[in-house]
Specification:
By secondary structure, the protein is α+β, with helices and mostly antiparallel strands. It is built from nine helices and 16 strands. It folds into three domains: 91 residues, Rossmann fold (3-Layer(aba) Sandwich), CATH 3.40.50; 60 residues, Dna Ligase, domain 1; 103 residues, 2-Layer Sandwich (D-amino Acid Aminotransferase, Chain A, domain 1), CATH 3.30.470. Helix 2 links the parallel strand 6 and strand 7.
């Protein structure tokens, strides 16, 4: 029986983790829930990967949560653990390097742009003067964490005075300044396209509440089924391929001049998407993982 670990930072299985465990069980696999805090890895040992002090015996690991606000050292350790798992022949989904590239918003957008995917004008700097100059030039801009998620810590600014305080806050927290041109979304909504193994399995519009600009479901946006045009679907699939992801949630904004990929999520949530479309991505992910693990 194929053993598949669901790896998360949460002590208890999250909703999406439970959906994956259910789908894996229905497909004849043995799901195992794992928490990062109990993992271990060694060199020169017959038991290189450990969980709760015992040798880790799984065929695949689905990384569902990596943790927010991690120290550099924890970041390095968790990457090392996943790379060690891959070197031991364990399938890691999404792959370790792909997860890290996707979590780095600037590097992922740079790679997408290099391959012809439209993305917003974006600048990262440690120089506050440069950041404030860009805000003044753009008129409206978004300041956000370079590795954040769920819309947390993102600010839309339209004046240098407001930007001044946010820029200095970021610098006081030893964070780089990640700044993006603000794009006026058509209908005050964006698209989330869910891609699994080079195929868009579902898509939704995420409509922001009246008076708000953030379209994250976690921030109160409403999910509505969507059937995006072919060029947007192709861009979503290609974005996932470029970053080396087996599954992804691709966020896209349609605006007056066209469309732009804003972000590619390596561990996307899908509760709102499933509720709106009736499509369960967990089944598609589980099938993809088991196909690869059983090769």
């Amino acid at each position: 029986m194929t053993r598949v670990a669901i790896l998360h930072n949460s002590p208890q299985p999250t909703w999406s983790s439970r959906r994956l465990m259910k789908a894996l069980s229905e497909l004849g696999a043995k799901p195992v829930y794992m928490v990062w805090g109990y993992t271990g890895v060694g060199v020169g040992s017959q038991c290189p990967l450990r969980y709760r002090g015992r040798c880790l015996d799984v065929d695949a690991i689905i990384v569902r949560g990596f943790g927010r606000g991690l120290s550099v050292e924890k970041y390095m350790y968790r990457h090392a653990f996943l790379k060690a798992a891959e070197s031991e022949g364990i399938l890691v989904v999404n792959p370790a390097d792909a997860i890290f590239t996707a979590r780095d918003k600037f590097t992922s957008l740079r790679l997408l742009s290099k391959h012809g995917i439209p993305v917003p004008y974006t600048v990262v700097s440690e120089n506050p003067s440069e950041a404030l100059m860009e805000v003044g030039r753009l008129g409206r801009a978004v300041l956000k964490p370079i590795t954040g998620s769920l819309g947390l810590g993102s600010f839309m600014v339209s004046s240098i005075d407001t930007a001044y305080y946010i820029v200095n806050l970021l610098l006081s927290l030893n964070q780089p300044i990640y700044l993006q041109r603000y794009l006026e979304k058509k209908g005050n909504r964006d698209l989330r396209v869910f891609v699994v193994e080079d195929r868009a399995v579902a898509a939704i519009y995420r409509e922001a509440p009246h008076g708000f600009w953030k379209t994250n479901i976690a921030r109160g946006a409403r999910a509505v089924p969507a059937s995006p045009r072919s060029e947007i679907v192709e861009a979503a699939v290609k974005s996932s391929q470029i970053l080396g992801l087996i599954y992804a949630g691709v966020d896209i904004i349609e605006y007056e001049e066209g469309f732009a990929v804003i972000e590619v999520n390596a561990s996307p949530l899908w509760r709102g998407l499933q509720s709106a479309t009736g499509i369960d991505p967990a089944r598609h992910i589980a099938e993809a993982v088991l196909r690869r693990a059983r090769r």
